[in-house]
Write a structure and sequence with these properties.
399 residues, alpha/beta, Alpha-Beta Plaits, globular, binds flavin mononucleotide
Amino acid sequence: MSATLQTNFVGIHLKNPFILASAPPTVSPENIARAFEMGWGGAVIKSVQYTPRFIKQNVTPRIHAVRDKSQIIGFTNFEIGSAKTLEAWAEGILWLKQRFPENAVFASLMHTDVLKEEEWRETTRIFEQAGVDGFELNLSCSHGQAESGCGAMLGTDEEQIKKVVSWVREETTKPVIPKLTALTMDVQSKGIAAKASGADAIAAINTMSSLPGVNLKTFIPYNSVDGMSALQGLSGKAIKPIALRCVMQLASATNLPISATGGIYTWQDAAEFILLGAQTLQVCSAVMEHGYGVINKLTAGLLRYMEEMDFGTIEDFRGKALVNVTKQIDLNRDYKLYAYVNAEKCIGCGKCVTACRDNNAAGAIRIEGKSAVCINDKCEGCGLCTQICPQGCISMMKK
Ligand SMILES: Cc1cc2nc3c(=O)[nH]c(=O)nc-3n(C[C@H](O)[C@H](O)[C@H](O)COP(=O)(O)O)c2cc1C
């Protein structure tokens, strides 16, 4: 079956569901133009604040890579809103829309230190006139200005979400898309509050508040800015499971289209988010690490997957995994498995023996001859050995 990546997101036609997230990759209209030429479907501009008096200077350095050995598993940053003024962005959006009418450009509104209704309303009017396709509301930035009451501080408070969404809703007929934070145990109720106030879709998630590490000699947590550090927002692969969880909860609770963001590096990541309810896919860290060119593998891979699976459009598989998630309490406790070691593949390294002995009351695995063997009666079926086996030679079998 031939498939298409074209999709309709809250009334906006997109040639593909991949959108640059509000972040360094969308720092300027010129950058966004280059990304569109390379194949991105849309872009959310770097979050803009209302008045120049709130445009603070960025610190240096402001980006740190969290690594597992040499692999980058995330970035932390304390970057703040755009250094460009509202007016400069309005001109930039006008320019972008003239040059790229087929691509979607979303504004990203972020508030200043004090919650001021008129600022949200006027920013909306200015961007509406500039011809923006939709409004993302940054109710989720976890660092920097969250400390002073904006970003995630708004997005963790249902009353504030309702206020901001309704102010913007009243000023525009374009799609309003609050970007919510995972820094809450109850993201569903934040989504429901946003929907009740007129949101057309929800974006999730933003960075997670974090400290990436501490220098053991200087005692200064990374990143050090002239000898001091501060809370930073974690992005990238490290937050993908949290983003998947939020997308699933928001899709189920609100039934709104979701623009997923958090750890999308590959087409497989993209497909997983779609299966849990995402309609569009926002990317930041992968572009920070590899550049705009990642779009080629994302689109080619997702299209190939869709053709293999016989999905004609994104809608054909959006949310298909949602029915397979239930409450933990409702999982079948009569379903019993035990570990089985394939002796032909086992190299007898003993990792599973140690893991089972030190994490399982019975200690079900031992080495017999050259390979590990699991004693079925003792096996509690936790599955740990299958996950840590370097050979991938342990599987779970039905009791
Ligand atoms: C350096 C940096 C700056 C960011 N700035 C913004 C911002 O201005 N507005 C916003 O809504 N999100 C911002 N984000 C968050 C991203 O848009 C995105 O939600 C997050 O990084 C998760 O996606 P990823 O894992 O693909 O990076 C920023 C992220 C990074 C790494």
